[in-house]
Amino acid sequence: MNRLSLFLAAGALAVSAVSPPTHAHGQSSSRLQLDLVEAVPRTLTLSLGLLDLQHLVDLDGNRDGQLTWGEISASEQRILDLVTASLSLRDGTGACNLSTNDKATSLTTLEDSPALRVVLQVDCPPALETDRLRLGYQLFFDDDPTHRALVTV
Questions:
Q1: What are the C-alpha distances in Å from 38 to residues 35, 41, 128, 133, 134?
Q2: How many other C-beta atoms are found inside a 10 Å radius of the C-beta of residue 110?
Q3: Per-residue pLDDT tens for 60-118?
Q4: How far is CA 11 from CA 4, 17, 67, in A?
Q5: Which terminus of the chain is less hemmed in, N or C, by CB atoms within 10 Å?
Q6: pTM, two decimal places
Q7: Over 60: is that where the pLDDT of 39 sits?
């Protein structure tokens, strides 16, 4: 091996040693939709890729590489806890309360991949300033700093 080949091989090894972990699937993304009724927030719907969720919550209970609705349902409370802890909706007067009901989750697709839809009920202070709403979202950014969240209002 000549010196240039040795240098390039050493450089490639050094880059791979310091590179952040990557995911085998495409770009990590989620979709958030805030539904307003008469300018007041009522629901916040998230679509979260199952592969992204698998990095945060061990969804594959039997470790067979296949996710079933039963396995996802068994992790539902942990998923809902993560989602509600990673979201905030507020205006200049205070924070809105985000809650779930017994039909909070269902399966959907996100960018042609299986995803989980989570619907949160939104209860905001009476003096809500809708022109000053701020949505905070932190769910996947610790695991994947390139994660993107697409928001629709």
A1: 10, 8, 12, 15, 18
A2: 20
A3: 889 898 889 999 999 999 999 999 999 999 887 889 999 998 889 999 999 888 999 99
A4: 10, 10, 39
A5: N
A6: 0.75
A7: yes
Say if CB 28 and CB 146 are below 8 A apart.
yes
pLDDT at 23: 42
Identity of the amino acid at 94: G
Contact residues for 41 (Cβ-Cβ < 8 A; gap 6+): 34, 35, 89, 96, 122, 124, 128, 130, 133
Phi-psi group of 13: left, alpha or beta (phi > 0 → left; psi -120 to 50 → alpha; rest → beta): alpha
Asked if residues 110 and 48 have their Cβ atoms less than 8 Å apart, the reply is yes
Report the pLDDT value the prediction gives residue 8, as an integer from 0 to 100.
Answer: 30
Token pair for 85: 């802890």
